[in-house]
Predict the structure.
Amino acid sequence: MNTLSIRDLCCLFCCPPCPSRIAAKLAFLPPEPTYTLVASNLSTSPTDVNGTQHYPQQQSSTSDATTKYTINFTDRAEWQHSNTEMSLLEPYYVTTSRNNRIACLYIKCVSNPKYYILFSHGNAVDLGQMSSFFIVLGKRLNCNILSYDYSGYGVSQGKASEKNMYCDIEAAYQSLKQRYHLHESQIILYGQSIGTVPVVDLASRHGDCCSAVILHSPLTSGMRVAFPDTKRTWCCDAFSSIDKIHRIRSIVLIIHGTEDDVIDVSHGFALYNKLQNSIEPLWVEGGGHNDIEAHGQYVERLLKLIDEEVPQLLNQQQVSASKPHQQTAQIQLASTLIIPTTVTPSTTNTNHHSPSTTTTNTNSNTI
């Protein structure tokens, strides 16, 4: 994990002592890059003494669209698959509206995917560290996955910030639609930890941008994480998903561990209560911040969403579209707050445990 220097700490708390700036600076901890992207149909880019390749600060979107890249992992990426599966990875760059050139990675896990997942990863990891997990997850769910590195992460340009994060996901989302010719109904948005922040923002701004949203260990706002007794959103707050989530029109699945010591499960409860179209959440009994994927019900719940709930929703929408003059009830597959027994003793836990073969490469207690 990256550490803050004395100079950083002084700037953090003294210049000026703004809670939103404190929250933002503490939230972003990009690791040392665990991969490089090499342009395979261009001349070799210059390298530094460590062998790291450098590319021009600006490239046109046309160049980014036509240039083919290959991804090379360092040992820290802990790549767990064979060279054959490297062919499933299609890296490329997109340029955001803030002129940051960010890295995207498309993983063709299956030849005939049910859906395409736009995955916003958590903190303290980059695409290199997540690639092995994406292959396992995509094959289990029969979906292809596109992920991206936020500005300042991996080989993406710029600095990590809340505003950049919103532009990053917008650029990745548009590239997924245009590059692979997808309709919104084929896309599922997935955010993990701090990655839930750009997902909520995107889904709340674009009414019908996806068929479903998955929020994995989400946070309500930066100040509510730093100061758990915060009851309202202040003007200086950051990452205020709690004030946006009610505008999401897609169905939303919330997954949260009951023993999360980084983002308390109460954040998941609060967001669930604000949903417009809620489905049965997954409160993982005993789950922490970085181990939910190791629980069997994690994949089971995602499969239920993909195999049952999303198709049901799309079918209902088709019926509604064919009968425009009939008033239809609001689609809400589950509307009762389900709280685990460890939090509310009088409530029954509906989760079922089973062994899981899914693993992930996650780091440290950071959001």
Notes: The mean pLDDT is 83.
